[in-house]
Amino acid sequence: MNQEHKEGKLAKTLEDQTAKLPSDVYLWAAVASMGVSFTLKLFKQDQTALFIGQWAPSFLLLGLYNKIVKVEGHD
Fold first, then answer.
1. How far apart are CA 51 and CA 73, in angstroms?
2. Which of 13, 39, 55, 71 is the least buried, fewest Cβ under 10 Å from its Cβ?
3. What is the pLDDT of residues 35-62, one digit of tens each?
4. Domain boundaries, the chain
5. How does DSSP assign 4-53, residue by residue?
6. Is the pTM for the entire model greater than 0.70?
C-alpha cells in the first residue's frame, strides 16, 4: 500500500461516524427529497422544488461512498 497517500484525520473521523448509519438512510433521504420536490412543484414553488430535487443525486452518492467505506474500509 502506498504510504504517501494516507487519509487525513478529518476524513477518517467522518468515515468512522458515517459508517455507523445504515445505507438505507441515504436512499430514504433521496426518495424524501424527490417527494418534497414533487409536492412543492404541485404548489407552484418551482424554484424551491428544483433546489430540493437536486439533493437526491447527492444523497445517493453519499450512500454509495458510505457503502464503499463499509466494504473496503479506509487506511
1. 32
2. 71
3. 999 999 999 999 999 999 999 999 999 9
4. 22-72
5. TSPPPHHHHHHHHHHTTS-HHHHHHHHHHHHHHHHHHHHTT-HHHHHHHH
6. yes
